[in-house]
């Protein structure tokens, strides 16, 4: 399927393959020159954000909102509804990243929760596809960590009562809480709309190398997810294949997540997401019928009323896993000069849950890497 995004007319001309690598002083020959001439304020630092998943779009939006001003352009080969982020169930329940301090993960989650809570509490909620949802996380044995680090970020966190646990005869322990859910494609469209309203163009282009953005851009923020295997030469980034089902079951109002989250039932605005799978190193984007049957039967074991669900659809996405989040500035030296890059990828199975907090940090880092803006042209001296 092709891209569903309508680009500003003046940018259509950019949607063509580059003819070669850029070289020092070749700003005028770069394929992105059109952005400067037609759309971009020349006196501001030029920042390219590579990627239009939830990480790229939120980072671009934070950059466009944080001062001092810079001119932001998003470059991506896939946009909603064709990204991994579109497949995400969109639940705000954190995934734990072993290499990142818990205090940092909690900060990212809290900032994301607060940001989405404000949206859910506003007239934008439906357009943005963000809503509150209550439910249970259940365990077959008591977990070692009885109170997770995010317990005081979500709302009303408590242990499940014996009466609630009666619904789940195979489970002995659980948490009850209220969190947020993003309808992923709706939220991505809303972020795109916000970006366009802030004058940020979204350019459709597949990059073979981040150097293609040099020297047209002063800083490149790499939010290419799994694409970082190629663009950052990072062989640690690996796909973690996830298959989910979406069904119509409007009577299911509570989420159910089993243990670490391999099996889940997440009700949304118009359908219920049933999951899932985590297959490391698997690249196949085609749904597998046997896997779908297995997901459905696991979910029905938790919520038997799902046997009456209709309108089943299957989706597959490849989580950018394997290495954990890389949020880091790098100066890459090459024959053509120095490329300032801020890497922001590797969010694995929890990118939606931390996207806004991590995007704020990536945007601050990118802003601090940008060279001082050239002075705007001086006004002509008045004639006396
Ligand atoms: C089944 C499933 C369920 C999930 N459920 C949840 C959940 O409930 N909660 C949660 O927090 N997370 C969930 N996730 C994880 C979440 O989807 C990811 O963490 C998140 O989408 C990663 O976002 P991203 O923007 O980094 O990557 P992506 O969405 O993959 O975006 C990458 C972008 O980079 C672009 N790109 C890549 N290479 C290039 C290139 N060479 N040139 C130009 N552009 C390029 C792509 O076109 C795309 O626009 C789930 C994932 C799956 C698969």
Brief summary:
With 384 residues, the chain is an alpha/beta fold. Helices cover 26% and strands 26% of the residues. The structure holds flavin-adenine dinucleotide.
| Overall SS class | alpha/beta
Which whole number gives the mean pLDDT?
Answer: 88
* CATH fold-type name of the largest domain: Rossmann fold
Low-confidence spans: 1-30
What is the strand tally?
15
The portion of residues assigned to helices is 25-40%
Taken as a percent bin, the fraction of beta residues is: 25-35%
Q: Which second-level CATH architecture of the largest domain applies?
A: 3-Layer(aba) Sandwich
What is the CA-CA span between the terminal residues?
Answer: 64 Å
Q: CATH class of the largest domain, please?
A: Alpha Beta
What's the CATH H-level homologous superfamily of the largest domain?
NAD(P)-binding Rossmann-like Domain
Overall form: elongated
**How much is the radius of gyration in Å?**
22 Å
Bound molecules: flavin-adenine dinucleotide
**How many strands, which pairing sense, and closed or not: the largest β-sheet?**
9 strands, mixed
- SSE topology string: HEHEHHHEEHEHEEHEEEEEHEEEH
Number of helices, counting only DSSP H or I runs of 4 residues or more = 10
How many domain modules?
2
What does this structure look like?
By secondary structure, this protein is α/β, with parallel strands linked by helices. The protein has 2 domains: 174 residues, Rossmann fold (3-Layer(aba) Sandwich), CATH 3.40.50.720; 134 residues, D-Amino Acid Oxidase, subunit A, domain 2 (D-Amino Acid Oxidase, Chain A, domain 2). It contains 10 helices and 15 strands. Strands 3, 4, 5, 8, 9, 10, 11, 12 and 13 form a 9-stranded mixed sheet that branches. It has a 6-stranded mixed sheet with strand order 6-2-1-7-15-14. Helix 2 links the parallel strand 1 and strand 2. Helix 2 packs parallel to helix 7 and helix 2 crosses helix 10. The chain is elongated, with a radius of gyration of 22 Å. It starts with 32 loop residues before the first helix and ends in a 15-residue tail after the last helix. The N terminus is likely disordered. It binds flavin-adenine dinucleotide.
């Amino acid at each position: 399927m092709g891209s569903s995004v309508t680009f500003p007319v003046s940018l259509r001309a950019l949607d063509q393959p580059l003819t070669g690598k850029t070289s020092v002083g070749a700003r005028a020959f770069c394929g992105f020159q059109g952005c400067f001439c037609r759309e971009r304020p020349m006196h501001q630092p030029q920042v390219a954000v590579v990627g239009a998943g939830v990480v790229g779009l939120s980072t671009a939006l934070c950059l466009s909102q944080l001062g001092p001003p810079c001119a932001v352009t998003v470059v991506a080969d896939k946009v909603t509804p064709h990204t991994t982020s579109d497949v995400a169930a969109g639940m705000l329940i954190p995934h734990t990243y072993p290499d990142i301090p818990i205090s940092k993960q909690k900060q990212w989650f809290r900032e994301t929760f607060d940001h989405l809570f404000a949206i859910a509490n506003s007239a934008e909620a439906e357009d943005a596809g963000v809503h509150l949802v209550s439910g249970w996380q259940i365990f077959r044995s008591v977990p070692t960590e009885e109170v997770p680090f995010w317990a005081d970020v979500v709302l009303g966190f408590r242990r499940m009562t014996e009466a609630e646990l009666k619904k789940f005869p195979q489970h002995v322990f659980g948490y009850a809480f209220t969190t947020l859910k993003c309808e992923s494609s709706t939220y991505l469209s809303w972020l795109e709309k916000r970006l366009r309203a802030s004058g940020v163009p979204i350019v459709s282009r597949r990059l073979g190398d981040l150097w293609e953005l040099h020297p047209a851009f002063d800083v490149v923020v790499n939010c290419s997810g799994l694409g970082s295997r190629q663009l950052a030469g990072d062989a640690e980034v690996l796909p973690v294949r996830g298959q989910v089902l979406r069904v119509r079951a409007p009577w299911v109002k509570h989420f159910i997540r089993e243990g670490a989250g391999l099996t889940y039932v997440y009700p949304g605005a118009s359908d219920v997401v049933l999951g899932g799978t985590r297959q490391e190193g698997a690249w196949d984007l085609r749904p597998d019928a046997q896997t779908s049957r297995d997901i459905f039967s696991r979910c029905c074991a938790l919520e038997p009323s799902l046997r009456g669900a209709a309108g089943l659809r299957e989706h597959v996405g490849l989580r950018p896993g394997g290495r954990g989040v890389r949020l880091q500035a790098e100066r890459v030296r090459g024959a053509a000069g120095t490329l300032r890059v801020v890497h922001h990828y590797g969010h694995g199975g929890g990118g939606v849950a931390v996207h806004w907090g991590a995007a704020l940090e990536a945007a601050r880092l990118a802003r601090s890497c940008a060279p001082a803006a050239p002075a705007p042209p001086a006004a002509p001296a008045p004639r006396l």
